[in-house]
Design a protein that fits this description.
Distance between the termini: 41 Å
Shape: globular
Largest sheet: 2 strands, antiparallel
Order of helices and strands: HEEEEHHHHHHHHHHHH
Number of strands: 4
Length: about 300
Amino acid sequence: MKTRRALSESAAAWLFVAPAVLAIVLVVAFPLVYSLWLSFTDVNLLRSSGPALELGALRIPLFRWIGARNYAQVLADPLYWDSLWRTLYFVAAFVAEATLVGFGMALVLNERFVGRPLLRSLLLVPWSLSRIVVGLLWIGILDFEFGALNGLLLRAGVIDSAIAFFKDGWSALNVLVSVYMWNQAPFATLLFLAGMQSISDDLYAAAEVDGAGYWRRLWYVTLPALRPIVFLVLVLATVNGFLMLDLIYVLTMGGPGYDTTTISWHGFKTSFTFFKFGPGTAILYTLTALCLLLTMLYQRLILARFEPEA
């Protein structure tokens, strides 16, 4: 009797869980496995020769297994390595800016002052906007001919001629970093602020009794307690930095030349402009490997010796 009851409870549990498991398999697991398999195959939708399924006038190219040849081709491409170093700079600058700005804004919003609820609400506006909208907004601000920023600086007499923010590759790349930081730093602020408000006031009171000032309390109380939040912010910012694509599409299209072409943009163009899905997915899976590597590095550096309070 007990065995039947346990089996019926187990079956009922699986019945309730099955829709969620099926959704995860269809939405997450299947595309992941399919894209990984795709990176080891050769298919080019523009190729008129090769294996294909003929359905009347319709010709559907078939995927041909070629092993690690796509990865070898990608790693031998100079454009890939140029894009990689550019991506590493972009991610490092973005993560540093988003983390420091987010932490600074969280420190301000954690204090008590008039208008704090309003500022906390306004903080989320940049993060809530679509990145396509963010890109169009900043084009209107930074454009050479009709940009609002150039107009204000010219009227104030700060500059003699309009600044071409997107003419030089180095300045265009740094504009991308700053615009993406403006969009994503509020989320880091939200995480830091939640972590700060979870710290017990008794810790700060004990530190004050010991004679610790503001900066010592920040260094010895706030930062150690925020180590899991710092880890989360760094991981999310790193992954978002590696995968950032839409702002490049709106602001620079990878130009001028290839000066703002990152790995994600290079993989996107390889797949959906040249229809080379094998090399394109191989390029993007190198990003996955980099994200996993950096996540393990963050874990070793930040959480290795972290012991949460009971």
